[in-house]
Amino acid sequence: MAELFIELFSEEIPANLQIDARKKIKQMINERLSKKEITFNNLNHYRDFLSTSKISKIINLLRKKKFVGVINIASGQETCLKDLATFLSKKKGKEVVFNDNKINTKIIANINKLNKLKWKTKKLNFFNFFD
To answer: Which candidate in 10, 14, 79, 89 could, as Cys together with 96 as Cys, close a disulfide (CB 3.0–4.6 Å)?
Structure first.
């Protein structure tokens, strides 16, 4: 009997910090938004984002194809965190300052196996989520 096992490629808040995380994150965001200028540190990195609806569609595709094995569920596309912060800051009418580290990083999934299953990846425009 084949089974589908899913492990999401995601950063995780440690269990001992989850209790107060929501409150602390909300407080941090409100503090930053109360200022005219927002400073970000170390956002010259690239990450792979995928909506929950696309994740559901991919899981359904894997189920229909009776896929067995390991596969990356991701967009395979890079989004610069600095671009995202700039976009959101402008939406809120805030000036933004970046203190970049010297090395940028990219964590982008290889979705070759997913593409072989006829998954059609559209060009992701992360910024459309906020319009």
So the answer is: 89
